[in-house]
């Protein structure tokens, strides 16, 4: 089902046979829960995202928290990167009528001058080939659900456990971005998030929420429900989580969830 390539690999994209002549669209909603910080009660958090219904696109980023040790607002880079992504998106010449997420991310990267670094994931629906086109860096990412079952989850890019690839002037360059192409169809649900979601929820848990919601929830309501569940899991100090499982395989000790900023974007393909 899925196809992907890393830009630096020189691999060519596979061509997807267009087996459906009808046009596709997607409706989107999002929800953000910044982690509590007693030392910075007015903090906007480290995550940022945008949703552009007109161009069937959205993006999210997670500022790397380690910069706070150097007195740098860890969320400033992610906010500027997403703002510049939206600017690049709106200025992009799209003769085909579709967005190129890799080009958007490249332009945003070169426009972003804030100190710090962040992960990034930009997703666009291309109606010509009925595929999601994605540019992804780090451990933010997305899942595709069909008939309430997860059929695809994006891979993460990391230098080591809890050390994701990240864009920044003193971090990774934009050519590390992985291009991903995933065929979709009407009825599919896309759930994207920063690691505050992906470190705290298994795909099966999201499947259960989607199953209970049926068709009654709007994308925004579904994003809120998923984010709340991820928050609950992040505060659980004892149950197994994707983060604790990854820690185990990396030879680290960690029980329960991981407290973090949580961004969830839900898109329904129609």
From TrEMBL:
Question: Tell me, what is one Gene Ontology molecular-function annotation carried by this entry?
Answer: protein serine/threonine phosphatase activity
Q: Which Enzyme Commission number(s) are listed?
A: 3.1.3.16
* Keyword set includes Manganese: yes
The keyword Lipid metabolism is assigned to this record? no
The record's InterPro entries line, in alphabetical order, gives:
PPM-type-like_dom_sf, PPM-type_phosphatase-like_dom, PPTC7
| Segments traversing the membrane | none
| Cofactor(s) of this protein | Mn(2+); Mg(2+)
Q: Which SMART domains match?
A: PP2C_SIG, PP2Cc
From the UniProt record, list the reaction(s) this protein catalyses.
Answer: O-phospho-L-seryl-[protein] + H2O = L-seryl-[protein] + phosphate; O-phospho-L-threonyl-[protein] + H2O = L-threonyl-[protein] + phosphate
Per UniProt, the keywords (alphabetical) are: Hydrolase, Magnesium, Manganese, Metal-binding, Protein phosphatase
Ranges for domain PPM-type phosphatase: 27-269
Record-stated family: Belongs to the PP2C family.
What's this protein's name? Protein phosphatase
Q: Which organism is it from?
A: Acer yangbiense
């Amino acid at each position: 089902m899925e196809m992907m390539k890393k830009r630096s690999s020189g691999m060519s994209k596979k061509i997807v046979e267009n087996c459906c002549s009808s046009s596709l669209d997607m409706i989107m909603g999002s929800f953000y829960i910044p982690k509590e910080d007693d030392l910075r009660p007015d903090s906007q958090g480290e995550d940022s995202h945008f949703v552009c219904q007109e161009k069937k696109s959205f993006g999210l980023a997670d500022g790397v928290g380690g910069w706070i040790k150097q007195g740098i607002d860890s969320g400033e880079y992610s906010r500027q990167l997403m703002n510049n992504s939206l600017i690049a998106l709106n200025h992009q010449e799209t003769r085909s009528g579709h967005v190129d997420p890799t080009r958007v991310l490249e332009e945003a990267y070169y426009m972003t001058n804030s100190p710090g670094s962040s992960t990034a994931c930009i997703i666009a629906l291309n109606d010509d080939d009925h595929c999601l086109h994605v540019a992804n860096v780090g451990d933010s990412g997305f899942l595709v659900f069909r008939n309430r079952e997860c059929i695809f989850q994006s891979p993460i890019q990391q230098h080591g456990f809890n050390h994701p690839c990240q864009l920044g002037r003193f971090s990774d360059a934009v050519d590390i971005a992985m291009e991903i192409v995933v065929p979709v169809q009407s009825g599919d649900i896309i759930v994207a998030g920063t690691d505050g979601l992906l470190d705290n929820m298994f795909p099966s848990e999201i499947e259960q929420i989607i199953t209970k919601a049926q068709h009654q929830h709007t994308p925004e309501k579904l994003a809120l429900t998923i984010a709340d569940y991820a928050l609950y899991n992040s505060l659980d100090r004892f149950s197994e989580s994707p983060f604790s499982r990854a820690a185990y395989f990396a030879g680290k000790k960690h029980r329960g969830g991981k407290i973090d900023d949580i961004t969830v974007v839900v898109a329904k393909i129609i």
